[in-house]
Amino acid sequence: MNEIEAVVAMKNGDRSAFRYLFNTFYDRLVAYITTNNHDKVQSEDIVQHAFIRLWEDRSKLDETKSPKAYLYAIAYNRYIDTIKKAKKQEKLLSQIWERALLDRIEEDSDALEKRIQKMKQVIDSLPPKCREIIMLNKTQGVKYKDIAEQMGISIKTVESQMRIAFTKIREAFKEDPAMLFLLFK
Q1: Of 6, 89, 92, 153, which cross-links 17 as Cys (Cβ 3.0–4.6 Å)?
Q2: In CATH terms, is domain 3-92 a member of 3.30.420.10?
Q3: For residues 178 and 105, what is the distance between their CA atoms, to the nearest angstrom?
């Protein structure tokens, strides 16, 4: 049996003619597609689909021509469709990832703003001397010794007031350990 005889027989539903064409062209088509995509498994899938299409469209085949060019065209077009589909999926995944990141940034910004407001409330609720000491130390970076000299109090008093402030802050943020870590590092 040759390729043209196989086409005639296949148009009449002869599965052995289809098997002949499959055995004749399968390996060559896989090699052809693999040179383009460098993925043998994907190439085999593409070529199998090409043969399915050949069988489904057998009534349209020209009985005077070899199906070789038709098979190569189907396989190549299927390969191009696979690339387009992969690019669409990549683009969609990229858009989903971007949106997720933007949502996360917005969530983090909102959460940070709430933490800042809560911290301000806690600090504002401290006794005046305690509030002044923690502000000097944490916002201006003044050391305990310098705070003591500036305010005319002992270092032990500064330490005591800082302990009071930290206790109140810990109580307020006991459900948010990340905030405590950032504050006390």
Answers
A1: 6
A2: no
A3: 17
